[in-house]
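Need residues for this backbone.
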């Protein structure tokens, strides 16, 4: 009612125009998504760098430079971290055994006094 049949040329022009508009919308979205993803990857890299720096500050040997005068690589940092964890666990075990030893020897001293 009121709409007349369109010719095939009019329909083709209308389809082309709609495709062009949709393409512009998509390309804007793509551009925004690319910018957003590059920004988020930059933030992720910064967070990783900050955490690696914090780890370097926790591990005593990582503060020193290696023989070549270069700062420690991440692989070496992780190896040093693993070694440091083993060292700390060993120290805890030794201290626990010392506490147990001194507790038992103090208990024997008290028994001998009575």
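Answer:
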């Amino acid at each position: 009612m009121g709409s007349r049949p369109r010719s095939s040329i009019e329909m083709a022009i209308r389809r082309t125009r709609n495709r062009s508009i949709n393409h512009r919308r998509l390309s804007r979205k793509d551009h925004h998504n690319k910018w957003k993803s590059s920004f988020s990857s930059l933030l992720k890299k910064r967070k990783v760098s900050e955490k690696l720096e914090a780890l370097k500050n926790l591990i005593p040997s990582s503060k020193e430079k290696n023989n070549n005068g270069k700062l420690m690589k991440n692989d070496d940092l992780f190896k040093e971290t693993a070694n440091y964890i083993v060292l700390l666990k060993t120290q805890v075990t030794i201290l626990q055994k010392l506490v147990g030893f001194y507790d038992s020897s103090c208990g024997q001293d008290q028994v001998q006094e009575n």
